[in-house]
User: Fold Conserved oligomeric Golgi complex subunit 4 from Lygus hesperus.
Amino acid sequence: MTTSATEFIDAEHKALFSKICNEEDKVTRELQAAMARHPLLDAKVRNITKVLPNLEVISHDAKQLSDMIGFASTLIENVSYKVRRLDVARSRVFECQQRVHDLLDLQLCCDGVKSSMNIGDFEKAAAHVHRYLSMDQRLLEKTADDVNQDSAAVNNSISLLQDAATKLRNILSEKFGEAVKNDDLASVERFFKLFPLLEMHDQGLDKYSDYLCSQIQAFSRTKIKSTLDNKNVDKRAGIIFADVITLLFEEIASTIEVQQPLVETYYGPGRILKLILKLQEECNKQVKGILNELWRTRQIEKYASMVRDKNRSTSTLKPTDPKDLDQLLAELTIIQSRYHLYLKFLRRKVAGERITEKGGEQNDLVAMLDSKLQSSDLCRLMQELLNNYLLLEHFYMEESVRKAIQMDCVEQGSQTSSMIDDVFFIVKKCIRRASSTSNIDGVCVVINNACGVLETEMCSALMNTMKVGFPSGYLDLTQAYNVMMQGRLQTTDSEQSKAVFIAHLNNTDVGSEYINTLCTSLVSEVTCSTELERRKLESCLTGLSSVSAAMGSSQELGLQQLRNTAIKPRVLSWLDSFSTLSHVLSEEEFSSYEANEPFIRGFIGNIDNFLSEFKGLLTVNNYETLVSILATEVNSLMEKVIMKTEFNRFGGLALDKEIRALVSYFSTATSWSVRDKLARLSQVGTVLNLEQVNEISDYWGSSPLPWRLTPVDIKKILKLRTDFSNDEINKVHF
Assistant:
């Protein structure tokens, strides 16, 4: 065997030997683990051996317990069977007793009906018949068959009571009719209480409802006649139809309030709905008559047609003065308010019912009531009345706002014109009047109409004034107001135009505040009965934001017109003196310049005079905005003038002090922060005040405010210094 073969065999043997050794080690470990568990297993086996005798005892006891449970189960089944038989026997005894009692009561009822009918005691007769009717008729007939010897007597009693019930029903109907004819309320209520005893619930309610309807009809006729006779002399003649409808609703509500306990006591719960629906039918008739008279007397159709024709631009009639509609609109809102209050009363009364005799719940009763009301003439008439009210209210609002704009004037000492207060007074009046109707849909319509009127009329008028612009020329607004109030200026005079422009600019600011106040007040004033109504109201109020946006656009345009006409030309003229002054100063010239302040004193004085003229005339917000615009213009225009001027070290120092004085003045002139408006100008002064060019590296990036100047701008500004060379400036790196 060769050496290589021997080595191969040795390697193979080594691998097998290693594998066998590993398996041996594994088996050894398993054997050791098993031997280690041996004492534990021995202990468990010994414990099991000890328990085995006890298991035999437990098995024997369990068998005995099973036998006892089986015996008890059998015993219980036997007892239960006997109990069931006893219960059946008891129920049969009870049935027998009931049949005996029914037979006894049958005879008593028969005798009692005869005697009561003879003496006219209908209450007792009805009670006896009611006792008979409450008996099981099938059981009575079976009893008569079972008791052969008394079957004839039982059948005779049944026949007699049936005849008595029929006769008594006829008598009650006749007596009730006589009581109604004689208007004898006590007798009407007496016989009304007896109908349920004879199982005449529906007939009794129908007859009693007809009687109550006749009473309401008579009441309504009396009130309508009294209204027509006194409509010209009554102090409340302007809303007399609303008063009549209110009295009608109150009469019906009072009737329901009084009759509900009577109906529930004698007819049972759930019956009041039938009475309410009957009364509602009569209410529909009476309200229709009252509203027809209202339409005729108040000429609502005439006004509505006039408004519709006007909207179509086809009217040939003279437009109605909106003041003529004021009283009518108030009356219509009162009617709507009373109508919704009346409906709430009906729903509350029906919802107060516990259950009907058929087991229906409150929701079913209320749903039935709502269904009847929605399909009633009352609902249709009130909806028609509401539609005409909304039409006339829109006309009233639109025409009143137009008249307020046409009569616009500026009173002495007032920052705004009369338009803004008058218009918002009219709008708030219309919306609050609509909210008194308690109809959230009507309120939303009026709010939407108000948004449209404010945008198309008032905002347009303000925007037109802003588009005309602020008249140029000599600016003395105080004099303009005084002269205008004395009547010495015509409407075309520029001073009056300036005063009107300022007043209308203030209108835009005050108008935005009024809109926010109006939204806040309406949220708290308008009553919403459900979350859905609340969301409707909030959705409509968001429409006022468009009016506020239109106001803001007019305000922004007006301020820009002031900037272009009044601010920019003035600032340019004030900066002319800066260009005439040399800013290449010697030390002596600098001292003289610093002492005399030839530019900044006059410049700040001009600004102060300019702002003082506007401070008392503009609203706080407009004035603050004006100061901000002025600061922005000064920053822009002064930088342009500076870029055309040369400076040396002392000239730059003088300019920096002037700019600091200017920033300080603007900071005291307004409560708003204007330092950012003048930040670029301040940085120009800082750059021109440098002693050395390379100092810019110390300032760049270290300022608390971000640099508004770019590196290119800084180099251009540095080149304004006559003492800085271009080479030094070009070497600056940022």
